[in-house]
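Subject: for your reference before the review

Hello V.,

The reviewers asked for a structural picture of the protein, and I figured it would be easier to keep everything in one thread rather than splitting it across files. Below is the amino acid sequence we used in the manuscript, unchanged from the supplementary table.
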Amino acid sequence: MKSISKSLTALFFLSLVAACTKVDKLPFYENGKAVSLTSSVTTITPSAADSNAVVLRLSWSNPEYATDSANQKFVMEMDADADFSAPKRFEVLGALEYSFTGKTLNDMLAGFGFTPGQPFSINIRVVSSYANNNERYTSNVVKVNMTPYLIPLTLTPSTTGPLVLEVSHASDQAISFTWNSSGYGNNTIYYALQIDKAGGDFSSPQIIKYGTGNSGGITVNDLNTYAINAGVTGGQTNDLQFRIVSYLDDTYTNPLVKSTAISITTTTYVPIPDNLYIVGDATLGWWNNPVPVPAQQFTKVDAYSFSINVWLIAGGSYLFLPVNGSWDHKYGGATDGTEAGGTTLLKDGAVPGSNTPAPATTGVYKITVNFQTNKFTVTQVQVPDNLFIVGDATPGGWSNPVPVPSQQFTKIDAATFALVVHLNAGGSYLLLPENGDWSHKFGGATDGTESGGGALKADGAVPGSNTPAPATSGMYKIEVSFATNTYKVTPYTGPDQLFIVGDATPGGWSNPVPTPTQQFTQLSGSEFTLDLQLTAGGSYLLLPMNGSWDHKFGGATDGTETGGATLLADGAVPGSNTPAPATTGNYRINVNFLTGKYKVTPL
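And here is what came back from the structure prediction:
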């Protein structure tokens, strides 16, 4: 026990001695100082070729921190604003210099949103500190003028041509392109192909937007459309220019880089419109636009062709229009199209200012416009000498030959026929140019009662169901015009009987008149005839109802002139009535409500 007590006493004494021993002073370190910054250049105008090359070297003095250089941090700050409100920062440890490649600076300038190709003054400074950010000092500011650059674009086509565009391959790809990327900083870059005609300056190019990709193609039809919209005439061979352009946004309004234009020889075709119309003083509709339809509207025969039968007037001219009522676009040719092989179809400004000439002889012509061959042909159509109606909509049914004259049309003029006939609802009919012969036929797809009538079709174009009768059975007037290529069906309101009264007749002005001597014989639904003695110096009227003065027909002349006289009705009849011929005698009076004529012939 006594031994332990001695040991504790000795340990306490030694500890007390150690606590009272004097040591040396701790070391004193001086503060660091701001570095002095210098730049290897004052102006930088790099190009894309300098992307990986050093274009700027910054160096600075030693801040003389009391630490190993590996523990010294340097932050380079760059900003266009002198107050360094939003600088771009680059950080290094230990080193007293830093090198920048062209791409590094270019990306930084792009990040600032600077416009490529324009110089900008950039303020640069270095903030030094210990690695833990203690004891920060800011250097002097140096200025360097920097100009951002753009990466050139190269457009590569899948073919150098020549390209021959054909409407039969409209949906096929005509050509494709590839191009390199042309980035600018971290921006998303969009690309568009521009197209112009040879010699153009791309001031108003056709543009195809391809988004952010590096390739794109064009179909035959689209390229044809772009070429024509660029000013290339459809159906001709021209050089087209192509270039790729990069943009900063998807509105394609801020172009960055434009590639060198490449030229490709291209043969276009005339585009196919949805509809086609004819207008001009060679037509019955003259130059009025919109034109009458269906008379002057083409029928689309197939995917590439349109056809129409139309009356053309010699000495006149015409145009084809894709939109009725609009003069924006037109088609035509330099000749009348009657030559072998037809005429080359021209579009818009290529159409002669004198327009397309009509054939030398007035008549009905079939015009076929083929957008695949880029031709139009004009062939004279022989207007039939006669026309007959057959079908279960008629009293004669499908028996052929048909009964005449009840189912034979009257030829009104060189290209027009008319007939009054009873039509049965639910039935159908055809029009035949020769009675008893099924070789040729005319007809339409509608009942013809619509405004403007129906489009007249011939032979194989006539629907297999034939021409439908109107929805209500009754007497109808059918007018067929080979000049306008239409047929029109209207309810007939003419009389079904006719009488003559007047002091030129044996019965005088007594009404009712004696029958049957002064009652006409009805030859057809619209034609009446009567043989009667007429007294010179007298006059007469024609009455649709015996004993009634409510309605009347007549004319201003005696009806003996060639072709007869115009038939007038009610108030239009002269107050002096219809004069008798100059010589008393027996006459045949023919009255036709289809032609609107009456004719008086001596017997």
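For the response letter, the relevant points are probably these. The CA atoms of residues 314 and 457 lie 24 Å apart. The longest strand covers residues 120-130.

Happy to draft the paragraph if you're swamped.

O.
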